[in-house]
Amino acid sequence: MNTVVLYGTESGNSELIAQDLADKLNADGHSAEAIDLQDFEPESLTPENFYLVVCSTHGDGELPNTAIEFHEKFTAFSGDLTGVKYAMFGLGDSFYEETYSQGSEHLDRRFTELGATRIGEYGRHDASSWDLPSDVALEWLPTVIEAAEAA
Ligand SMILES: Cc1cc2nc3c(=O)[nH]c(=O)nc-3n(C[C@H](O)[C@H](O)[C@H](O)COP(=O)(O)O)c2cc1C
Fold first, then answer.
1. What atom in ligand 1 is closest to the CA of residue 125?
2. Which of 17, 56, 65 for mutating ligand 1's site (highest number of atoms within 8 Å of CB)?
3. Rounded to the nearest whole angstrom, what is the distance from the C-alpha of residue 101 to the centroid of ligand 1?
4. What is the pTM of this model?
5. pLDDT, tens digit, for every residue of 80-94?
6. 140 in ligand 1 pocket by Cβ < 6 Å?
7. Mean pLDDT over residues 123-135, rounded?
8. Ligand 1 atom closest to Cα of 14?
9. Backbone angles phi, psi at 30, to 5 degrees
């Protein structure tokens, strides 16, 4: 199973997580690459890959800089994503009570609307916690890989 780790970031946390997830998968004998959403087109989504989407929240519950253009294209995209499997890992800060971790949810809604299937638990990192972002993501990783392989 080839895994593509897509990330949207503003201050770099999601990029670090995405790279750590891809490195871990490759070290474990899987095949994975991390790609910034600003370098990725919705047309490239295919059932042949499994997608891990790592995305933070900025503004007032909005997407981070590198995910904004992708989201615009994704909103206009009319392809059928039936058969595409993905998992979501959202970054946020519960200090922002009303909009906690909402950035990734904009992408999640569109994946679902287009017919893709979300696999496993929705992963989250809260910047107000003491947890290191990559530790949380690496703990989450095997659960979604197992779920994807079983799906
Ligand atoms: C200006 C600013 C606005 C933010 N707005 C939100 C928000 O509305 N909701 C939320 O959950 N987190 C918010 N955050 C927290 C970020 O999502 C969090 O710091 C995250 O780890 C950043 O990841 P990134 O480096 O990949 O962009 C905000 C952070 C900043 C600096």
1. 21
2. 56
3. 8
4. 0.97
5. 999 999 999 999 999
6. no
7. 96
8. 26
9. -85, 180
